[in-house]
Amino acid sequence: MYGLDIFFENSPNGITLGAGNKTYLFIGEKTGLGVLLSDNSFIVYTLVFYENGSLSSKFGFTLKADNLEINLINDEIDGQKTIAGKITLKVGDLYVVGRLQGKEVRLDFEFPIW
Description:
This protein has 114 residues and is mostly beta strands. It has strands at residues 5-11, 14-21, 23-28, 31-38, 42-51, 54-64, 68-77, 80-91, 94-101, 104-110. It has a ten-stranded antiparallel beta sheet with strand order 1-2-3-4-5-6-7-8-9-10, with no helix packed on it.
């Protein structure tokens, strides 16, 4: 509608409602401002918001190519701010997936079974 995206988020802590186009305003459980840049092969976003009596921020990045996908976000794990990420490389029918979440690092090999 009029070039605006409208979103609604329901979580156990409350409801957030927002609208925008590349720059977003949102109110509710979280109140703040966000910026989203996207194209066919990438997404970059950042959020600054007020929640539970304090100012917080989040950011994320995704890059996609033919056989590669990289995802990075900042997150809070066990009360500690950290970077979480995932890199997926496709080699034939095999997917090599590296994950970073807090202090946990994993390397998986995924393949179709059918």
